[in-house]
Predict the structure.
Amino acid sequence: MTARMRQTTWALWGMARPVIMLSVILVYIYGALIAWALGGGFDAAAFAWGFAALLLVSLSIHYTNEYADYATDALTRLTPYSGGSGVLPSGQVPRALALQAAWVTLIGGLIVAVIALWLGLLSPVVLLLLIAGAVGGWQYSLAPLKLAWRGWGEADNAFLGGLLLPVYAAAAQTDSIDPRVIAACVPFMLLDFTNLLATTWADRHADAQVGKFTLATQHTPGRLRAIYAATALIYTLSWLLLAAPIWGGVAALPTPVIVGGFAVLPLVIWGFSRYTRTESPFPSVFTMIALLLVQMGAWLWVGAASPPA
């Protein structure tokens, strides 16, 4: 391998944002765990093909974001969770490489999904969810919508990563969209939104300089904290609703799952207390990851206690 090839390989690895890709992998496993625990069984081939398609499409979304955020990433301070990878502003590789890689990985992911559909390993529902995720992910950064530049990026990203992704993973196992999976993932989507409020807050000055109008660039700290608090309140109310015995006389979700949702409330309060008062998005990021891990453990417990027939 030549020095140029090594440089390009490391650049592509860096722009893939491995830390964030790890969270994508965990959320995919999370969705599959929910399907298994709810009696959907586990299909290893569907899991593998669904993951391969998702991995490539997710890479394409990261590369489009790196391409679109070239100017703002050159101005911001890098953290593990915000500010981009820093690869393109460093001049290691031409900016066009990111867009080229995005197209290659997008097409590759869709080809993998179509082959799996042709083999009968994934259903049309899964392919449609993957396409929806690809469109939403690309439109986060690129024209014509450029949602992240027009104040809709946080909502778009939370929907894609917090709801659509685990529903996709569950659908890969069951060939359908289960309303119980959607209900289980709504609270996670809400904390994903607060996480994105925190990460865009860290980038607000750089974003404002290049005309990227995130929520953090458009609203005062007081209003942003009100949005954060409202989201945290809805998160709490969602668990209360899911725990209420109004769904045929029982709670909508298993008790360990609901207990796990309430268990992270102290972290939610901590994240709110630090939001806009520190540059680091760590409290909100940690809270979201904590909920994800707690929920994965809870669904694993439920599935192990009541293995599907």
Observations:
- The mean pLDDT is 94.
